[in-house]
Amino acid sequence: MQTALTNNGTTAPVAALKSLTELNKALGDGLRLQILRLLKSESFGVLELCRIIDMRQSALSHHLKILANANLVSTRREGNSIFYRRAFLSDDDPYRDIKESVFDQVDQLAIAKSAEKKISQIQSERAQQSLSFFNKNADKFHEKQGLIVAHDDYSSVLHDVIDSLGLSDKASVLEVGPGEGLLLTELATKFKKLIALDNSREMLDKSKQAIKQSKYNSVQFVLGDTAVARKQDINSDLIIFDMVLHHISSPAITFKDAAALLNDDGFLLIVDLSTHDQDWVRESCGDLWLGFDESDLNHWANKAGLVAGQSSYLGLRNGFQIQIRVFKKL
């Protein structure tokens, strides 16, 4: 193993010195620190970051490469785009303490008003893209969703997970994005207080019709997203996102909203796709995200003050994988 002489006369592996040099290089630039601040709890594509920072793609890519070489950011491919987020710090990283300290200090910096405005615009554009799809395809949603997964493919496992939570029938349950009401009508057989939240009026009307046909009357319907629910002081013991998170503009913000809506000891239940590379689902099914890594969900939950619990993974015949994840508010 190659070694180099340090100032105190001891030796250190050349690889370790190289990684430390790359780390110091990455942290020795104000713009790169700004990028780390922007990626505190959100992921952005290269072009989105170019808009926020007002920089040419070639110049920004240079800075992102330096951050990636220092293991300060991680990449994720979303179709033809590369998204960046902060790297998760592992226990075996020899410079974890340094990186943690830097992240803590960077997070105390304010984001420029102009950058905040652009971030808000990007998130609004993402949300509008998803909402437009559902408003145009409400009558075809079941058919389009079936291209990936049918509710029956995982419903028995999902209900096993729900039953294992030990909630009473008096528990308050919120389903976000109930779609055509398949799960909602099933939940109505278990719980006496249900809330259906959807930002698409067309899809919410379909849920209402499903509940009406099932002759249940214990469901409150709310038009809007989790931010609207927070303003209405809605609190729940269980919040469910059933194949919905990949349609949401900012999963990180949604986790924080969900944590605020949960009662103490409440549960957040996420049913969604694991990471995949099937880019056709964007146009065909209105997906904003190509599934999620387990580590991404854990990271957003941790930032929101939620603790990861049990999980279940189901492989589908068409190559997709469903993940059912439980997070608890302590």
Task: Quickly list its features.
330 residues; alpha/beta; Arc Repressor Mutant, subunit A; Rossmann fold; 2 domains; three-stranded antiparallel sheet; 14 helices; 12 strands; 45% helix; 22% strand; globular
Walkthrough of the structure:
The protein is α/β, with parallel strands linked by helices and 330 residues long. 45% of the residues lie in helices and 22% in strands. The chain has helices spanning 14-27, 30-38, 46-53, 57-69, 96-106, 113-137, 141-145, 155-164, 182-187, 201-214, 226-231, 251-261, 281-285, 294-303, and strands spanning 3-5, 11-13, 44-45, 73-78, 81-86, 172-176, 193-198, 219-223, 236-242, 262-273, 306-315, 321-329. Strands 8-7-6-9-10-12-11 form a seven-stranded mixed sheet, with helices on both faces. α1 (14-27) crosses α4 and α3 (46-53) crosses α6 (113-137).
Q: CATH homologous superfamily of the largest domain - what is it?
A: Vaccinia Virus protein VP39
Number of helices: 14
Indicate the overall shape. globular
CATH 2nd-level architecture of the largest domain:
3-Layer(aba) Sandwich
- The ordered H/E elements are EEHHEHHEEHHHHEHEHEHEHEHHEE
Within the largest sheet, what's the order of strands? 8-7-6-9-10-12-11
Helix content: 40-55%
Mean pLDDT: 88
Strand content: 15-25%
This entry's quaternary arrangement is single chain
Radius of gyration: 22 Å
Number of strands: 12
Total separate domains: 2
Reading off the top of the CATH hierarchy, the class of the largest domain is best stated as Alpha Beta
- The poorly predicted ranges are none
What is the CATH fold-level name of the largest domain?
A: Rossmann fold
Can you summarize the main beta sheet? Answer: 7 strands, mixed
Distance between the termini: 47 Å
Helix/strand-derived class? alpha/beta
